[in-house]
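Side project, low priority. Logging it here so it doesn't get lost.
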Amino acid sequence: MKHSKQKKEKTRKLSDHAITLRQRLHQALDLGIKSFDDGVRRWRCSDAEVEGLAVRAMSVFVDCISSDPSQKPLVKESIVDMLVALEGILHSRNENILRTAADVTVKLFYFLGDSLAQYRTSDLILALSLLLSFQDKKIAVSCAAALTCIIKKVHVPEADKESWKILEETDAVNTIINAIQDYINGIQTLECFLEMASLLKIVLQRFPYSRYPVWSNTKLIDDLQDLCIKADPSIAIAVLQLCSALALCGDGAIKLLENGEHLLSLIACCIENSQPRRVRIEAFILCQHIMRSERLFSVLVKLQFLPIVQGIIGAMGGWRSSSCQKVPADQVPLVVEACRTALITRWAGVHHSYFWKSSIDRILLDLLVGNRSKISRHAVPLPPKELMDVIYDDVSIIRPYIWDILGWLATYCDETFHPIVDGEENCLDILISCACFVAVESMCEGCYSSLSSSHTSQLEPLARAVLLMMTSASKYISLKARHHLSEALRPHGYRPLENLLDVLKSTFLGNACGALDNLKTVMKSIYLVWYSSLPQYKNFIVEKDGVQVLSAIIKRCLCNDACISRLTVTCHSQHRYEKRMCCSVYTEDLEGGDIVLYYSLQALFGLISLSDLAPKEIIGSNRSEVQDMINNLQELNSDSFSPHLRLYSAYNLSFFGFYGYPTKLGKRMEKAISEYELADVQLLLSDGQSIDVHSIILMSRCPSLLPPGLLCCKGNPSIVDQNLVQKYEMPKHRVRLSDRIDNTALRKLLEYVYTGCFQVDEDLLSPLKILSKHCGLKLLSHMLHRKHPILSSGIHTIDFTAALEPAGLPFSDVILESNATRGGYQNCSNCSLSTFHVHAHRIILWANCDYFRALFQSGMQDSSSRIIKVPICWEALVKLVGWFYSGTLPRLEPRCQWKNMDTDQQQHDLQTYVELSWIAELWFIDEVRQVSMDVILSCLKSKPNLSLNLMKFAANISQWDVVQAAATHLVPLYPQMRDTGDLEQLDDILIDILRTGYMLCSQGASN
């Protein structure tokens, strides 16, 4: 052991030649490096001969030690001195010395590699940044390469802040942009372009603030995209990487999509089979960046998207042309990126049909099992053990994507979907069979101990894919998945289910509920949904307290004690640059941020829907248990939770007589059901009774209840113009309904139309099913029939924004007019008013605002006026009216686009929310006031320089909360403002606020 240690130390010694070169190096460096009293060492020599001697000594020494990376620790002291010398020498005016020094810097950084992070490099970053614009572009290129090394290798947050500050002060980003533009214009060399593009890519990836100056340069982006199509592969790769880096900013991605057709054609060209593999990979990565959210993807899928799908299919299946039995190693990176891109199947769209028509099921099967001669060409699977050997013999990194793609494809199939069968081979059926049998074997064999860790990470995508196929809207896929899963589970009996329930009981019902094993908890939850969805296991689960387990899981999740997101248990679904993104446009998967809670709701729905017992009997004999479950489900079916959690909560609540999706807007609209003064339609019932309703609400939510004749009667917009100055009068239209309509059911249906939800007894379900179907309320009808939730449909909460569109104009009975806006006038095609205004509806305003309710009922002159002046700006009025109709107030987020706006525009945007806060306080609209204050506080934190003017504006309309918020940012500047005279533009009250705040801060600091 001792001999081995001595031998190791001996091998780590420098060679005699290296020692000699090191001595010469330090002799040269000592001529220029000086030590100061504070212990800092700096290069302090401008003699060209000394600088040249030092640079040559460094070059020779670096060449010597570069051949043996193990020598890095032995020359650490020398490296520190070289960095000090290079920082000083790079400020030299001698071009020959600069050229050599820049080259040495690059060589040294390449030698250091990751160990570069151990050294202080901020001074070097400054020197190198200043040289990016040097007239000798060879020097600039070397400096760009050196900067790329530093930024790529140094990952310390404090160093990042310091580095960006230097790059910003030296205007490095614009310098790089100019160099790239020079190449496009034919001035610079290809080497310069590639090195500058590489540096810009790293800067964009590391520093979010660098992105706006680049993506806002429309000419540069257009020129780069044009260059990419025409250029050789090295340029195409560089441009694609730059676009990917820009798309890390959500606003930047949106900017790139402004010319979506051109961008799609660029990507389609770059992913063609004829392109070099590296170009195709970078094009797929760009695809993933610009399609990472449903919002971004929805822009592109409306364009010519077929070539993108064809490119994905070509990359996923192109390897088969080589007659290989599995994906060749050199093609794995391309296939992986194509599979990553194919995860766009997680959103609805026409691209799903493109994938199916391109035989995606055949390609997925080939990726899964390789050469299909290994597996039956019919639906009869191999024995489970042999099947697992075949599947796990292939490329493991690809499998999670196969399962995810299969699951998403199944999710968005419609009810009548049937696969295209090529001859006797049904690839989809084989895929479903493989998934079910392998998933069950993994579960039953105790996969956490039997399978390797690489297999463990793939269990969740596989089990989840089986679940998504079971719940598919396609009857074909759903029935096949349930059949194959039942067949796979049958030989194992009830033993796995019993073990599963025992583990969940000990985890969630035991006396000591400790920390959760995330992956194990998720897998157990999915397995329980499997069993709960199959009729043959329902009684066993209920008898073994499965419902109580689910209730305990739901309670614990609601206490935020078991919150597990999918990203914490899967690696493949994480975006590679997620932590570097800004201006997020990211969309969660359908499970939301808590997949255990989601799966628990799914399992509960399966048990209740399949059981012969009444829902209340399944939950428990204790009435309080039932009520607790209802309360928990109602809490989950609120605005605070993700749409798909609400979906299953609502469907579970339907078994207890609660239907729909409650919202704050719906709660406010509940008052309108019993409002008769503003009602303009009277529904005459068969029993002689009548119901007064409001045509605009029916038009927005259930137009089939309005006869076509009424729409024609309302449909002349010129009436709006003719009666602008007349008093408001409400004519009533009487509509006689069919004798076959159940009156009680109709009243309940109207409650749903007005509020988005209702509670009903079982005996009224039958007529409600008929009525909802004939009224075209498909989602309500689906819920009333208690079918399985359609995941692809999402949830439809109450919304009246359709009333603000042209179809709602004929029903308008009031005009809201704003204060004069900043110049201009409104050219309204529906009336002669030139002031900025909105055509609105009294019943919506009446239900959502105490002020309007009091006004319309007051009998005062304004109560019957057709035009009501609202003392806020046009932008504020539009946002306020939007809230009345949708229940949502648009939030201004301090993203890159807004942060870089003109200061006057930023000020105006914030003043809009100050006015909203003021009118909300005046009209008692607490929600609007709270959201407005949140926006103001967030934006002031991001842009404190807006505080002074906003403080004055807020004080003028007595918004003292805003004044105090602005003062918080100004208080530390009080002495400076006093000395510069900035306080003179404030009145005495505001000066007193700042003075008092400053005194309190000073006292706090002294204490």
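Brief comment: Residues 686 and 739 are 5 Å apart (CA to CA).
Revisit when time allows.
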